[in-house]
TrEMBL record:
Superkingdom per UniProt: Bacteria
Designated name of the protein: HAD family hydrolase
InterPro entries reported in the protein's UniProt record: HAD-like_sf (IPR036412), HAD_sf (IPR023214), TPP-like (IPR024197)
Amino acid sequence: MSPVLVASDLDRTLIYSAAALALTMPDARAPRLLCVEVHESRPLSYMTEVAAGLLTELGDAAVFVPTTTRTRKQYLRINLPGPAPKYAICANGGHILVDGVADEDWHARVQARLADECASLDEVRDHLAATADPLWVRKHRIAEDFFAYLVVERELLPEEWVKELAVWAEVRGWTVSLQGRKIYAVPKPLTKSAAMREVARRCGATLTLAAGDSLLDADLLLAADRGWRPGHGELAETEWTADTVIVLPERGVAAGERILREFLREVR
């Protein structure tokens, strides 16, 4: 039998910062949490202990592929429970890691496509530098020479500026996504779905499952045979869905647990 491939976004889909946990129940009923990421000696990301057990089961039953917009360095500091994934997708599809090492052929193919199909990263970076107000921008970042993002103060961020940036980016072949305190500008040809299809081809998977919460996950959900999105995030805020995508009511870390249950049910 061919394996099932499970491609899941990580942040705010399977793992959660303290601010994103959404623990709305009484304290005494809150789930036990497992820290899965430490950064600069501080705990950063969590999942429930139940979710950790489910992910371990999933890793034994399917080809689990962490699929993230994080850079390789940011991804590699996550310590997920269960078997170490053979494949991981980083930089929104710009890198496929095989046993933790980037596939250089895939990287070169992606870079060539970006050069042919959209405006340069330099042009986008310069536009962000010229138009973003230091009053609400905390950091300017370039990720893996693929895309740019800003870390902002959300309460000070003008909504109109984000809309204007999206229009400016659209005609240049880029897309804009606002996730928490980060605004991403990402080339449209740089997709999680293309990388997922490549991994599915390599491992011979004929059934693909996916989950994600943000605009940058929409193409991944559409490309998979079945997809799930939680009750929070960019996709929930815009009420985005599709025929093959199941909308879950759970929000926060409880959604991560539910998504893993859904994955396991389909795999079995």
